[in-house]
Write a structure and sequence with these properties.
single chain, about 200 residues, alpha/beta, 6 strands, globular
Length: about 200
C-alpha cells in the first residue's frame, strides 16, 4: 500500500520540541502517513564537534517513541563518509519504491538549497515542504517568493509552503543552557532530558 512519508533530517543535537511540533503539524496538514527522522552521521554543513551520531540517534528514538506516526532511520548514521541529502533520498526511494516522499525543511535553509550537493538531481526526485514561522523567519516573505520561483524555474523544483506555529528555540541554545546548568524543561522532552542528565551530555 502506497504511503506518504515526510523526511525530517538534521543533526538533532539534541532533538527538541520544535522539531517534534513542526513534524507533527506538517504531517497533519499534508495528511502524511509517516514522518521519518534521519539523524545525520557526518553532516557536510555542520562544524566538527557535535555529539556522536549513535548518541543523537538514541535521543531521537526516545523522543519519538510515543508517536505512532514517527519513525527513525539510521541510514546516515551508519555511513562512514559524509552524508548528502540526495544520496539519502535515492536510497530511501530504492528501499521503498512504492512510497511517495516529501522533504521537510525550515525556511532558514531555503537560500542554501542551490548549494546542496547535486541539488539539480535532488530537485527532480522529491517535493520540498517549506515550514515558515510568521514574524520569525530569517528570510523576508518577498525574498522567499523569489527564491521559490527561481528554484521552480531553474530546477523544476516542487515546493509546498506551510505556516507552522512558532516555537523559537534551537539546539544551540539548549546546549548552552545545559552547560550553564539552566532548565530546558518544556523545550526538550522529559525522557530526553533524563538521558542527557544520566549520560552527562553537553556539560563541557
Amino acid at each position: 500500500m502506497k504511503k506518504k512519508i515526510g523526511i525530517m533530517g538534521g543533526s538533532f543535537d539534541p532533538i527538541h520540541m520544535g522539531h517534534l511540533m513542526m513534524s507533527e503539524y506538517v504531517r497533519s496538514e499534508l495528511d502524511l502517513d509517516e514522518v521519518l527522522f534521519v539523524p545525520t552521521g557526518n553532516p557536510p554543513h555542520k562544524q566538527i564537534g557535535i555529539l556522536e551520531a549513535e548518541k543523537r540517534l538514541e535521543m531521537v528514538k526516545i523522543a519519538i517513541a510515543d508517536n505512532p506516526h514517527f519513525t527513525v532511520s539510521d541510514l546516515e548514521v551508519q555511513k562512514k563518509g559524509i552524508s548528502y541529502s540526495v544520496d539519502t533520498v535515492l536510497e530511501l526511494k530504492a528501499l521503498h519504491p512504492e512510497d511517495e516522499f516529501y522533504f521537510l525543511i525550515g525556511s532558514d535553509l531555503l537560500p542554501q538549497l542551490k548549494s546542496w550537493k547535486r541539488f539539480d538531481e535532488l530537485a527532480t526526485e522529491i517535493e520540498f515542504v517549506l515550514s515558515i514561522r510568521p514574524g520569525f523567519d530569517t528570510i523576508t516573505k518577498e525574498d522567499m517568493v523569489h527564491e521559490i520561483a527561481d528554484l521552480k524555474e531553474d530546477y523544476g523544483a516542487r515546493v509546498t509552503v506551510i505556516e507552522t506555529p512558532l516555537y523559537e528555540i534551537s539546539s544551540t541554545q539548549i546546549r548552552q543552557r545545559i552547560r550553564d546548568h539552566r532548565s530546558v524543561r518544556y523545550l526538550v522532552k522529559q525522557e530526553v532530558i533524563s538521558k542527557i542528565e544520566e549520560a552527562g551530555y553537553y556539560r563541557k
